[in-house]
Specification:
This protein is an alpha+beta fold. The chain has a domain at 8-34 and 84-169: Alpha-D-Glucose-1,6-Bisphosphate, Chain A, domain 4. The chain contains three helices and seven strands. Strands 1-7-6-5-4-3-2 form a seven-stranded antiparallel sheet, covered by helices on one side. A hairpin with a 7-residue loop joins strand 5 and strand 6. Helix 2 packs antiparallel against helix 3. The radius of gyration is 16 Å and the shape is globular. The chain starts with 12 loop residues before the first strand and ends with a helix.
């Protein structure tokens, strides 16, 4: 990822991808299982569905609990905003109309396996990062850049973990 000088209001994004030697239905089973994600993430500690649901569908909600050395501990409610079984799973954090972030997995069959990408967008809704920017507005671009790098590193680890689990079982 290159230095972009992005501002939070620019809703900057980052995306990583990998090819997995496993069919899309096996990859889908992992990426659509939100309770598996904390096993891959250093930041995301736990996830649970709300309202008595147990699987994703547009409009379903879940709580995520996270922990970060610089940002502390927090909990968010996420809303499934895109759900195409076997292809796309996306959720908006806190407010689906003004999210603090949006996350998306996308799958495509490729070369007898699966091309998997994970994408994330910061903002436009206010988040914990907004408070850091409020305290140090002159460092906004650096704060955004560092957070996007953290997202990129975490997503790279997520995809590597999914790839390793699936390819080890094939």
């Amino acid at each position: 990822m290159e230095w972009t000088g992005a501002l939070y209001a620019d809703t900057p994004t980052v995306e990583v991808e990998t090819w997995i030697d496993a069919p899309p239905e096996k990859v889908w089973a992992l990426v659509s299982d939100i309770e598996m994600m904390p096993t891959l993430s250093a930041e995301l500690q736990s996830v649970e569905w709300l309202d008595g649901v147990t699987e994703p569908a547009v409009g379903h909600r879940f709580i995520g609990r996270s922990k970060h050395e610089s940002l502390g501990e927090w909990q968010t409610t996420s809303y499934v905003v895109e759900y195409e079984p076997g292809r796309v799973f996306a959720w908006a954090v806190e407010d689906p109309d003004q999210p603090t972030a949006i996350w998306r997995f996308r799958l495509e069959p490729k070369d007898a396996g699966t091309q998997l990408s994970q994408w994330a967008q910061l903002g436009p809704g206010r988040s914990g990062l907004s408070f850091a920017i409020d305290r140090m507005p002159e460092k906004e671009q650096k704060i955004v850049y560092v957070r996007l790098k953290e997202f990129e590193q975490g997503m790279t680890q997520n995809l590597a973990g999914i790839k390793q689990r699936l390819e080890a079982s094939e």
